[in-house]
Amino acid sequence: MKTLKDVISLKFKTSESEGVIFHGEGQQGDYITLELKKAKLILNLNLGSNQLGSIYGHTSVMTGSLLDDHHWHSIIIERHGRNINLTLDRHMQHFRTNGEFDYLDLDYEITFGGMPFSGKPSSNSRKNFKGCMESINYNGNNITDLAKRKKLEPSNVGNLSFACVEPHTVPVFFNATSYLEVPGRPSQDLFSVSFLFRTWNPNGLLVFSNFAEDLGNVEIDINEGKVSVHINVTQVKKNRIDISS
């Protein structure tokens, strides 16, 4: 497949921070790879390099963050020659590829959700995508529909299910005035708490608890984007411990 124009679009959701979303390569050295790394989206593209090394076509663009939030995210890649529009959740980024070539020359399969082991160092260090995709469209072909109707040959490696598993975790959303109060454990000299959180706000109280018998309290908060732990103990001379990260 030697193309001057490409339009690739899909939606995905995952709780994994790493994984190859799709990949294609050719014997001329051309390739296109879209993957998650550290919960960011990275597009690697090469329309060709030459043997002398004077033309270096590798181009890498990063966009987005916190994409492992198990929410649907939409991607559109529009290419015309070296001009690329990469759109993630309606935020468009325009760039031009390196090198001097305009055609993407792929003579192997396009793979979605991972990449075949090629023996190259780049292939075995990458994780396959784990999560859900829908509305995969590659240059006018509805890939998800073709895969479901088994019209692709070869269509899949491993087990594909045409349903999306929901996560077992249940998130809680807090506004500026709400909080959650749970009973403490009496006669326990151990205080242990763990949780995951996400917020755009630089300040806010995360956890607060009084110790029994007026022995003090513990407070965990965000202050100017840093998490701080404050432990107040009334019976000790150095009665306050502050930890910040």
From TrEMBL:
Residues 1-164 form the Laminin G domain. Pfam families: Laminin_G_2. The lineage of its organism: Eukaryota, Metazoa, Chordata, Craniata, Vertebrata. InterPro entries: ConA-like_dom_sf, Laminin_G, Neurexin-related_CASP. Gene3D superfamilies: 2.60.120.200. It comes from Podilymbus podiceps. This is CNTP2 protein. SUPFAM superfamilies: Concanavalin A-like lectins/glucanases.
